[in-house]
Amino acid sequence: MRAKILCVSANDSPSGQQTTTSAGRAATHDSAFLRACRREPVPHTPVWFMRQAGRSLPEYLKVREGIAMLDSCMMPELVTEITLQPVRRHKVDAAIYFSDIVVPLKAIGIDLDIRPGVGPVIAEPIRTRADLARLRDLTPDDVPYVTEAIGMLTAELGETPLIGFAGAPFTLASYLVEGGPSRNHERTKAMMYGDPRLWADLVDRLAEITAAFLTVQIEAGASAVQLFDSWVGALAPADYRRSVLPASAKVFDAVAAHGVPRIHFGVGTGELLGLMGEAGADVVGVDWRVPLDEAARRVGPGKALQGNLDPAVLFAPTPAVEEKTREVLDAAAGLEGHIFNLGHGVMPSMDPDALTRLVEYVHTQTAR
């Protein structure tokens, strides 16, 4: 099925697209979310949730019924509808573009699928130097559905910013080398330690692809971008500095000239927060394992922080949720800039009403 929504299509002409993009950015420039990213005063602490557009919403399950994940990412009207759903329901301060981190890999011809209950599965893993030839450049022509969907979204969102996103080089490399999700990343670390030159060339190539994918989103109208490094918490700091930091920094450097805020997030990265701050993002995402005041000490000055309520807290009664939320807000009181989020993504079985109440509570408690 194809989602049916009421939306204004982006102007098809190049000049019209530029005008739409510029107008959209101007409208969102003073939003609480972007002001927090820039470490400026805000009317209230802005809130959005990773995976807010997805499986916890009954309206999402309805429009996605019978449509494979990767197929849904290539349908602009459906992407627009799904991205807008949590903005309508929860009144969050930013939308996150609905896609998947493996979309750019699929777009350049990597044979992969997202299997329900498993995740991305790669038909022919990347394990030799010859395999690198399959990782060609990504161009806007490879992902026209992204440009079209973001044009639709910026027309619909008005003053609400849109966050674009991509997977970080390490996490993409892990999927490609392992052939799918991995608990221990055995093959990934074997390449990283055993053939460091091949590893460096692999993550450098992925940095170029990732930067190109983020650039498409920014040029189409995204007001900020987030780099997800889901698996990088598996590394020790010395390994991160030597084998991952250069590639992540290359991504952030490549999009810096666009002037949009750049967010860096990983799971289990408490020991890596300082290094992640060095990679070049304007905002560092923090999972729930490290209090925000301690995270600020580790990251150092000059960065806003994002986070970091434990997602599991949302299954507790409302008074308990509010108590734990208050702890996060208190820990964030002295930060240069703070964006409230969960310490990881929304869980599929989470009550959507709990998220709506959480947004309202944060807004009410932090109103200036």
Structure description:
- By secondary structure, the chain is α/β, with parallel strands linked by helices.
- Helix content is 47%, strand content 10%.
- Strands 1-4-5-6-7-8-9 form a 7-stranded parallel β-sheet. A two-stranded antiparallel sheet has the order 2-3.
- Helix 14 (292-299) links the parallel strand 7 (283-285) and strand 8.
- Helix 1 packs across helix 7 (144-157), helix 8 (169-178) crosses helix 9 and helix 9 packs across helix 10.
- It starts with 13 loop residues before the first helix and ends with a helix.
- Residues 1-19 have low confidence and may be disordered.
Supply database-style keywords.
alpha/beta, 7-stranded parallel beta sheet, two-stranded antiparallel sheet, 47% helix, 10% strand, globular, disordered N terminus
How many helices? Answer: 16
Secondary structure: number of strands:
9
Based on CA atoms alone, the radius of gyration comes out at 19 Å
Q: Indicate the structural class.
A: alpha/beta
What order do the SSEs take from the amino end to the carboxyl end, as H and E? HHHHHEHEEHEHHHEHHEHEHEHEH
Strands, helices and their partners?
Blueprint: H1 14-28, H2 32-37, H3 58-64, H4 69-73, H5 76-90, E1 95-96, H6 103-107, E2 112-115, E3 119-122, H7 144-157, E4 162-167, H8 169-178, H9 186-194, H10 196-220, E5 224-229, H11 237-243, H12 245-255, E6 262-266, H13 273-278, E7 283-285, H14 292-299, E8 304-306, H15 318-331, E9 338-339, H16 352-366
Parallel strand pairs: 1-4, 4-5, 5-6, 6-7, 7-8, 8-9
Antiparallel strand pairs: 2-3
Helix pairs in contact: 1-7, 5-7, 7-10, 8-9, 8-10, 9-10, 10-12, 15-16
